[in-house]
UniProtKB/TrEMBL annotation:
UniProt keyword annotation of Ligase present: no
Alphabetized Pfam families for the sequence: MarR_2
Coiled coil residues, start to end: none
Domain spans labelled HTH marR-type: 32-178
Residue stretches spanning the membrane: none
GO MF term set: DNA binding; DNA-binding transcription factor activity
Keyword Transmembrane: no
Protein name as catalogued: MarR family transcriptional regulator
Alphabetical keyword list: DNA-binding, Transcription, Transcription regulation
PANTHER family reported for this sequence: HTH-TYPE TRANSCRIPTIONAL REGULATOR PCHR (PTHR35790)
């Protein structure tokens, strides 16, 4: 979609949002189809991005070992190293994933001897998570990989948009995360 078309769709969307707010969500004077298609056309780019990024997250990479890991697996490893003694329940809360999803990730990391579980001194039912020496090596390679990968991505983006645009994108993403997290809190 070209910039002019995108900006026109945003204009329609923002104009109708202010009308909807002032009229209490009454659509009598607003074309439902026009608003819906404006929203859908603008958001379709975000949907594509989310789906592509989701595929990227679950694609695998080698991080200095013969085994390939997904982004969520290796970032979980990093989070455990940065928070030694964390529990799986805390990971569920941090990642906003199901217990079974986190359990599968931890099982894979443990099978490859990247993490170990220790019973809590206070409550033997709780398992505290720690990164092994092998896990630390994988994590070090992961950090190097991410530095190079993010640098390449930012350089590629700067060929298409300005640094200010990139900064604005991250600002919007942070605000959007807050909106989504608030929605999770309200609806869960």
């Amino acid at each position: 979609m070209d910039n002019d078309k995108f900006n026109e769709l945003l204009k329609i969307l923002f104009n109708n949002i202010s009308d909807i707010k002032s009229k209490g969500f009454e659509f009598s004077e607003i074309s439902v189809n026009e608003v819906f298609h404006s929203i859908n056309n603008v958001y379709s780019e975000m949907y594509k991005f989310v789906l592509l990024y989701n595929d990227y997250i679950f694609s695998t990479h080698s991080y200095g070992v013969d085994i390939k890991f997904s982004m969520i697996e290796v970032h979980t490893l990093t989070y455990i190293e940065d928070n030694p003694g964390i529990t799986s329940t805390e990971l569920v809360e941090y990642w906003h994933k199901s217990k079974s999803s986190i359990s599968q990730i931890l099982k894979r990391l443990e099978e490859h001897k990247l993490i170990r579980k220790e019973a809590s001194v206070k409550n033997k039912r709780f398992k505290l998570l720690y990164v092994t020496e092998k896990g630390k090596k994988v994590n070090e390679e992961h950090r190097k990989f991410d530095i190079v990968d993010v640098s390449k991505t930012l350089n590629s983006l700067q060929e298409k948009v300005s640094k200010d645009d990139i900064s604005s994108f991250f600002k919007v993403i942070n605000a959007y995360n807050e909106v989504i997290l608030k929605d999770f809190e309200i609806n869960n």
